[in-house]
Design a protein that fits this description.
2 copies of one chain form a homodimer. Chain A contains 23 helices and 18 strands. Chain A is α/β, with parallel strands linked by helices and 740 residues long. The first copy, chain A, is globular, with a radius of gyration of 26 Å.
């Protein structure tokens, strides 16, 4: 009790600067971006009413109801949840429809993994029922741990431990003369999106891939394990897709096209993004006997996890047999699309989505975000009935089939690409939600806007804004790009949720929002992501669920009602300028590293720096790094900065004929795409943001140029510089026209 | 076989630049530092003859013989080894005597550690006999795992896990409101010298201290464990001293005085450097049940080791009882001191030592270094018989009682302080030796000299010099202070071996030399530091033992025979200049951190950046950092640079009356001491090098100033700046006089 009191005594001190003479007090009460003074007042009144309509107990009840059975795409529960969601949206005054796509969704028929020698072991591949978690006993229709879009296979071979299984790890293996050709690799989760691991393994000739959750990254090293604590226990395993999503997301058989009846499809097993080798996720309980049986060199320091063994790399003597067979049927994916038509601009759409499908119960992922979206939609629907219909159309989407690879959203976006390209103002995404700090990612043009929203919403645990808390956390962690006042930088988006088709395929400005950092957990994609787990370790009283509704509901309403759309391009120009600096500096870094490396290798110093008993194979010399012509990009950057300032000045000037201006503002993001897409992945069209080809989740900004530099493809780098400069020039020209 | 061939094919490429047009080829054949051209030729001839007298099989045989029983101070075997060593030295032509001191050396009468709750466990505290290691069965007279100079005690209390147990760890505990007063702490080995852990624990009010070897730092995380591999197994424990050596080393009862009959002594248990609380080292097998029983907050990320548990901090519910009782007798420490009188300058002594006592068998620590010294001494003795008597006197020392706290060397140095202050030219130390890379630490004035030696000795695994290999390793590891040519920087010395009384108490220029980096091991201070272990995992064919003899033998002979002593003060001035830059920059860093910290705390951001459920206690505001007057030190630095250049020019100019010059050169290091010593530890007189008061092994350069800044004692910092500037000025004045 003492600590508790002391804590709140301090809090009153802590809160003072945030509400007192702190940063931007004017903004808190001044006019909102894109609104007149009186409009701001009305809008703030509307938001107060909106806040009052939210209720955490509804989020709690919906969570319990929607997670009482496994609800993955194609499950009866997923359909029932879709119907319930549609029914509720209709009750709240939306035109809601359940939109079905038939998508490739392999489910396991056979899964077996055996250690054949030197010792024998048969992997359990099962998450046991826990007395403390009633959900875990609901085995009926539960999908066991598996990786969707793994190949079928019955393979046998020596094991090689490949750390996270990213390209840099294979360079280490090469030093040691370890070749994975004809071998089965075992990689730990982490360090990249999971689909990268089998992709890189197959590129190197491996015939199978096992992915396990190491307790270092996801287990007892992180915290007490379930059911005692929140973290992954010995038998917990992480399901998930291993489609090659950085090439394209969505149904692997129908890139660029919607998975509707009659669509032309790749044969299931031969679709370009389906993995070429069998892949299976296992628990650390199952991984330990396998890893302990591997011999060969001791793994490098950074490869070692938290199992109580010495990590070796192999190959062998551990030998395993991996058998996987899947039912390659399609499953019906049910998106719920709910429209609230705008009173003045029905053809300007504010899109708002969260996925609904889970791997098992999904209380955290995705229902925690979905129920926040529902209460937000309910309140906006009720406000419309009370006479506060939004000026622009709001479209809510409850996506199915996100888990296997953003299928629900991608197929819908591909289905409506032409209409969305004309009408979509912005897409606001949420996914799992938790307790803690607001994370803001998205199009940089929305940075001032979403910061303004974050300043206006209070944190449920402290009497400060959610922006103040996020700022405090960033400063505490030593993030030097965050000042004591002003906007927080928002993160560029890679991939991992449903904003990808909107932002990166069509060029629709997007935001991704959610709270986290205080709700510990290791239930991700396991049978233990249950109501029981979430109520003990997640946002237990749904206070952050309501707060998320406040943040995203405000953003939705302000976008729907603003006179001038709140896009501000100086923020974009500043960040793009920073990315340009990064890629130009990257070339110099690569040059210095190459020179250092080549000097070490060619002088023989590399060899004598090693222990000869390790019998390491010296690396090859790298080709020298040429000087690259960045001039077109530097010129485009400068033009962008000027154009952005001009159009922001125009936007800030207020009324007049804002319709043409608004259209330029929300269509501008389209001009950051190139219709040929990125090299080797034409589906990804955005030239500023993309998921990394070898990171999967992680963003690569200015991806065409940056990945060419990272791959040392200097010819492609020069070509991509020219392309990017052209794209930025077109974008600037549009802003310049609007500013006139 | 393939790898082996490939490797040697590469080697021939690798070796070329080192022996070809590489760095400093002239130096390899040109005159040696301090020798004339003809003198250099003679000296090189002598060294070739010296090399030919060395034989690894002798090192092997001596190691086997000297480690066939436990040989700690006071053991019959230690006396036998002393007698054997003295006899051999006499055979080789030395005047050798066994010099006895009676030193406080507590040995355990009772050791017991019990977990009283929530579960019961009685710690084994024993290293089992291994069939693969015959030595481990020699239990007769073996000291079990214990910490020398622990207090007696029978204490019972809740456990608190304190990570490495250094001051920063206690700041974390404070944040969490965890108080160790009346508790028993459990710390892991590493992060500091072991004696720091109970010292800091006692300062914070703990009543007992357990130190364990975590497998993360010293066990299966590092490599396969003994007897399968070299690393510490489940039941291996690290013995060692916990005297407060950063205050003074040597017999705790006789600081500044030799432990001879009739000397005034502190009562044993009340000596200032004897620990005030009971301390016991345990294995990770014994630690795991204790750590697993600790509750409370999960330990911070950096505190977590490699045991398969979630690390918690406590306090409790784990409750332990620790009972320790010691025999506080004195033991006879037998140093062997062997003199080979110089033919021309008998009163200029080149001192050369390695300790002989171990904790158990000590094949690695210290016998691997000791046998290299023996063969080196043998060869020098035989050369003298052949007519190549050294011009200066060489004194070999085989130290006893190093393990409990440098007692053998310290008592001898204290005994002969006045004579050593006049006669000692330099002290060359070795300790454990292994396979791999030459490590060079010591007085910076000897940097060019020892680099010259390292250029002239070949690595036994590659056809390059040991300097080339050390350089390659440093460059491979990204050490930017190492260039492609020129001298390698040598490391300043903290503590941990017998150079400390010479260098830091008397100001005798010292070097510490040894090979390592390729002989993996976790046998340190355990019963498994055996002949069997060393022959499998150490310098198995004693090739590096012979190489160490070549390096240190050359250094000894060159110092003994040089016309002008090879001290070069520009190197010292350059490093001191760098240290001055560091301490001035450190004040600015502390200032910035303080400002950042105070802004975070006073604005309340610190509080709202935390998870309120963690109930963290906000830190206090730090007093603002004043501006400190570094001018005296900057002026002294500049004067030192000029004086050093002048005297080096004089030294390089060759003959003339070099006797006065030589005396200045070797006495100069004395002028880097201050007779009042460092604040709170007058025994440590050197003003440039000291072991850190809170690191123990780790060096603090310019310790008076640096530690005052680190402790934010600005008044002391100003006073220490003035003192240090005065010391440096006195030193410069001496060089200036010699240069004239």
């Amino acid at each position: 009790m003492r600590r508790f009191l002391l804590f709140f005594a301090l809090l009153s001190v802590a809160a003072r600067p945030a509400s007192g003479p702190g940063p931007m007090p004017a903004a808190v009460n001044g006019p909102l971006l894109g609104f007149s003074v009186s409009g701001s007042e009305a809008q703030r009144g509307l938001e107060a009413r909106f806040d009052a309509l939210l209720d955490p107990s509804r989020l709690d009840a919906w969570t319990r109801e929607m997670t009482d059975a496994p609800n993955y795409v194609g499950s009866p529960k997923s359909k029932a949840n879709a119907e319930m969601t549609a029914r509720l949206f209709r009750e709240w005054g939306y035109e809601a429809e359940v939109v079905r796509y038939d998508v490739l969704f392999p489910t396991p028929l056979e899964r077996s993994l055996e250690l054949l020698g030197p010792n024998g072991y048969r992997a359990k591949l099962d998450e046991p029922v826990l007395a403390e978690d009633a959900s875990s006993a609901k085995r009926d229709g539960m999908l066991p741990p598996y990786n969707a879009y793994s190949a079928d296979g019955d393979v046998e071979g020596e094991l090689v431990y490949v750390n996270y299984g990213v390209p840099a790890d294979y360079e280490e293996l090469e030093r040691l003369g370890i070749d994975v050709r004809g071998k089965i690799v075992i990689a730990r989760y982490g360090g990249s999106w999971r689909g990268i691991k089998p992709k890189v393994a197959a590129e190197h000739g491996a015939i199978g891939c096992i992915i396990y959750s190491d307790p270092r990254d996801d287990g007892y090293f992180q915290g007490d394990v379930y059911p005692e604590g929140a973290y992954r226990n010995e038998w917990g395993a992480q399901r998930g897709s291993v489609a090659d999503m950085p090439t394209y997301p969505g149904d692997p058989t129908t890139p660029f096209r919607a998975s509707k009846e009659g669509v032309e499809r790749y044969p299931a097993r031969e679709a370009p993004t389906v993995m070429k080798i069998p892949v299976l996720p296992i628990s650390y309980g199952d991984a330990q006997p396998l890893l302990a049986a591997i011999g060969g060199p001791v793994a490098p320091m950074g490869w070692r996890g938290a199992l109580p063994i010495t990590y070796h790399m192999g190959p062998g003597p551990a030998r395993v047999r991996l058998r996987l067979r899947f039912d390659w049927s399609t499953a019906p994916a049910y998106n719920v699309i709910a429209r609230l038509e705008g009173s003045e601009f029905p053809d300007q759409w504010i899109l708002r989505g969260n996925h609904r499908d889970a791997w098992v119960f999904g209380a955290g992922d995705p229902i925690s975000g979905h129920v926040a979206m529902m209460d937000e939609a309910r309140a906006i629907g009720l406000l419309a009935r009370e006479g506060h219909r939004p000026r622009r159309t709001i479209v809510y989407a409850s996506w199915d089939a996100e888990e296997p690879g953003l299928l629900g959203s991608t197929e819908w976006v591909e289905d409506h690409a032409e209409e969305l390209a004309r009408k979509a103002v912005a897409y606001l995404n949420t996914d799992s939600n938790g307790r803690g700090f607001l994370g803001m990612g998205g199009s940089h043009a929305l940075e001032p806007f979403i910061n303004e929203v974050a300043r206006d919403v209070r944190d449920p645990q402290f009497d400060v804004s959610v922006q103040d808390r996020a700022r405090a956390r960033a400063r505490f962690e030593g993030n030097r790009s965050v000042g004591v006042s002003g906007d927080l930088p928002i993160s560029p988006l890679g991939s991992g949720s449903d904003y990808t088709p909107f932002l990166q395929h069509l060029g629709i400005a997007s935001l991704n929002l959610g709270f986290g950092g205080e709700s510990g957990g290791g239930s991700y994609h396991s049978a233990y992501d249950s109501y029981e787990h979430y109520k003990r370790f997640g946002d237990v009283d749904f206070a952050y669920g309501v707060t998320l509704a406040r943040v995203v509901g405000r953003a939705t309403l302000r976008l729907a009602n603003a006179d001038v759309l709140p896009f501000r391009y100086e923020a974009l120009a500043r960040h793009v300028g920073r990315y340009v600096d990064e890629v130009t500096a990257l070339v110099e870094t690569v040059r210095e590293e190459t020179e250092r490396h080549n000097t070490l290798v060619s002088s023989g110093a590399w060899v004598i720096a090693q222990d000869p008993r390790d019998a390491l194979i010296p690396p090859d010399l790298e080709p020298a790094v040429p000087h690259v012509n960045f001039a077109p990009l530097l010129n485009a950057r400068d033009r962008l900065a000027a154009a952005a300032s001009a159009v922001d000045a125009r936007s800030g000037a207020g009324p007049g004929d804002v319709q043409a201006l608004n259209e330029t503002l929300y269509l501008a993001e389209r001009l950051l795409t190139h219709q040929d897409g990125l090299p080797r992945r034409p589906w990804f069209r955005h030239q500023v943001y993309a998921p990394g080809y070898y990171t999967g989740y992680g963003v690569k900004t200015l991806p065409g140029v940056r990945e060419a530099v990272e791959q040392r493809d200097w010819v492609e780098a020069e070509a991509q510089i020219v392309r990017l400069a052209g794209v930025l020039d077109g974008f600037s020209a549009s802003l310049e026209a609007a500013a006139r």
